[in-house]
């Protein structure tokens, strides 16, 4: 068995010292629901080629040389999405045809188009439930082509694991050990806010543990996609009684006692969640535009993709929706979730692979937002995306290489149908481009600026943001 380091030991002891109230059904009282907010961070792992999701469609010269469609098309080559405008089907009606990866765009402004394989995102945009953040990425400080050799740059730029960690820590040079979600929980604990000692916890990772939630005091709750773990399979058994008795006993050894308390709490919490899960809304009563129950994949042929979808993001977001319903009913004031979607490292076969990824991303987010709308929590829930980095503009072996700046988006209550940031000049020698002929775009907005915007939506005052985002002072705020 692996030994605990000092920080893990202290976290275990602290977690074991929280309220030991029973979580059996019927033993809790609902608390205030007036200030509830939930934030979801969706991590697109591998580096999403977001310049083929949000596409500059204005003719060259209208907004400045290098920022129009012609430069985009020239630099993207065989991967360039067509400038053709595709009619968008009405909401709740499946598209008559399933556009391919580079067939065209849905117009969202006179300057921008959305890849036509993502109609659900276009619907969210039209309903003002989606914002775009243009050209964002990991930065230690503002950088241009002229200052690349003198500015502080992210540690191990273009490396997947390091950039994912930088996003989780909200520190491009990775000098801190805790994640922004963990520091947020610690901050609220110090302020005595938002029931951070509730056994449900404030920070919930779906599928796997997240470095985002590393903190000094509060640990995350990790849930599998699809629902809580059923420990006993139903019914009270001798094994269950024995385990509860064993973990209720007091032990002189501090570590053993802490582990016993934590395990008892985990057993009670698992049983509580299992029962509450069965009482949440039955989303299969709702259908998507393809006539398929919510959180179920439609027929792939109808979606027009060649590479099969995994459906894992749908399952994760269904889990989040149900945990939001439970947390809201429980009287929690804040919940933070991390979900992940891998597969975006598209070095080859990008036409087929990225098409499926964008199609699944679009469909899954529409399903999730419909669930939140049904729960009447559309004003209380927001989601935002992060990704390791963008990708190179130039194709490489039918795919793309690791880039830097890319486009992200915000869905839900924090969105209002807006565009944040400026279109970069894509010409190779412009101040927006790294000294690399493959076309690596320098971010104009730091990822911390996006995270900071979401934290302000959660209610963190501007003056307190540096406690959670140590480098936020290097950048301006975005509205």
Describe this structure in words.
With 479 residues, the chain is of the alpha/beta class. 31% of the residues lie in helices and 12% in strands. The protein has helices at 6-16, 69-76, 119-126, 160-169, 180-191, 238-248, 254-278, 300-303, 312-330, 350-374, 447-458, 465-468; strands at 37-44, 54-56, 105-107, 112-115, 130-137, 203-206, 221-223, 334-341, 381-387, 406-412, 419-420, 445-446. Strands 1, 5, 6, 7, 8, 9, 10, 11 and 12 form a 9-stranded mixed beta sheet that branches. Strands 2-4-3 form a 3-stranded antiparallel beta sheet, with helices on one face. Strand 3 and strand 4 (112-115) form a beta hairpin. Helix 3 crosses helix 10 (350-374).
Largest sheet, strands/sense/barrel: 9 strands, mixed
Unreliable stretches (pLDDT < 50, length at least 5) are 1-33
Distance between the termini: 49 Å
How many strand units?
12
Strand content: 5-15%
Report the total helices. 12
Average per-residue pLDDT, rounded, comes to 88
Tell me the radius of gyration: 23 Å
CATH topology: Alkaline Phosphatase, subunit A
> Structural class given helices, strands, pairing?
alpha/beta
Instruction: Specify the overall morphology.
Output: globular
Question: In CATH's first tier, which class applies?
Answer: Alpha Beta
Task: State the helicity in percent bands.
Answer: 25-40%
N-to-C SSE string, H for helix and E for strand: HEEHEEHEHHEEHHHHEHEEEEHH
Assembly type of the chains comes to single chain
Topology, please?
Layout: H1 6-16, E1 37-44, E2 54-56, H2 69-76, E3 105-107, E4 112-115, H3 119-126, E5 130-137, H4 160-169, H5 180-191, E6 203-206, E7 221-223, H6 238-248, H7 254-278, H8 300-303, H9 312-330, E8 334-341, H10 350-374, E9 381-387, E10 406-412, E11 419-420, E12 445-446, H11 447-458, H12 465-468
Parallel strand pairs: 1-8, 1-9, 5-11, 5-12, 6-7, 6-8
Antiparallel strand pairs: 2-4, 3-4, 5-10, 9-10
Helix pairs in contact: 1-7, 3-10, 6-7, 9-10
């Amino acid at each position: 068995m692996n030994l605990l380091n000092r920080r893990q030991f202290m976290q275990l002891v602290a977690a074991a010292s929280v309220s030991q109230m029973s979580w059996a059904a019927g033993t809790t009282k609902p608390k205030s629901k007036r200030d509830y907010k939930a934030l979801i961070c969706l991590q697109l792992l591998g580096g999403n080629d977001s310049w083929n999701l949000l596409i500059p469609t204005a003719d060259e010269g209208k907004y400045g040389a290098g920022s129009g469609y012609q430069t985009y098309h020239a630099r993207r080559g065989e991967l360039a999405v067509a400038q053709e405008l595709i009619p968008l089907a009405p909401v709740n009606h499946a598209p008559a045809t399933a556009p391919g990866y580079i067939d065209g765009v849905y117009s969202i402004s006179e300057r921008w188009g959305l890849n036509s394989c993502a109609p659900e995102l276009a619907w969210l945009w039209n309903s003002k439930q989606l914002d775009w953040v243009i050209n964002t990425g990991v930065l230690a400080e503002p950088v241009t082509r002229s200052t690349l050799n003198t500015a502080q740059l992210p540690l191990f730029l273009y490396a997947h694991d390091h950039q994912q960690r930088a996003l989780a820590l909200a520190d491009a040079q990775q000098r801190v050990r805790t994640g922004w979600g963990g520091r947020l929980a610690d901050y609220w604990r110090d302020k005595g806010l938002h029931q951070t000692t509730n056994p449900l916890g404030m920070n919930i990772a779906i599928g796997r543990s997240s470095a985002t939630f590393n903190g000094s005091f509060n640990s995350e709750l990790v849930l599998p996609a699809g629902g809580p773990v059923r420990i006993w399979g139903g019914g009270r058994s001798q094994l269950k009684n024995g385990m509860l008795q064993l973990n209720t006993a007091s032990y002189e050894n501090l570590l053993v006692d802490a582990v016993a308390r934590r395990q008892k709490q985990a057993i009670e919490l698992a049983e509580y969640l299992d029962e509450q899960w069965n009482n949440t809304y039955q989303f299969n009563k709702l259908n998507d535009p393809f006539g398929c129950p919510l959180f179920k994949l439609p027929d792939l042929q109808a979606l027009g993709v060649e590479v099969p979808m995994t459906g894992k993001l749908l399952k994760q977001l269904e889990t989040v929706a149900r945990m939001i319903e439970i947390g809201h009913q429980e009287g929690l004031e804040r919940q933070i979730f991390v979900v992940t979607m891998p597969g975006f490292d598209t070095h080859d076969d990008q036409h087929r692979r990225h098409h499926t990824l964008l199609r699944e991303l679009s469909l899954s987010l529409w399903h999730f937002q419909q669930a939140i709308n049904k729960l009447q929590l559309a004003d209380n829930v927001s989601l935002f995306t992060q990704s390791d980095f963008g990708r190179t503009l130039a194709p490489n072996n039918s795919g793309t290489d690791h880039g830097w700046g890319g486009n992200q988006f915000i869905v839900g209550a924090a969105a209002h149908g807006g565009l944040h940031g400026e279109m970069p000049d894509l010409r190779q020698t412009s101040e927006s481009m790294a000294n690399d002929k493959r076309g690596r775009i320098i971010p104009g907005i730091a990822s911390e600026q996006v995270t900071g915007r979401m934290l302000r939506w959660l209610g963190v005052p501007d003056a307190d943001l540096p406690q959670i985002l140590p480098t936020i002072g290097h950048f301006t705020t975005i509205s």
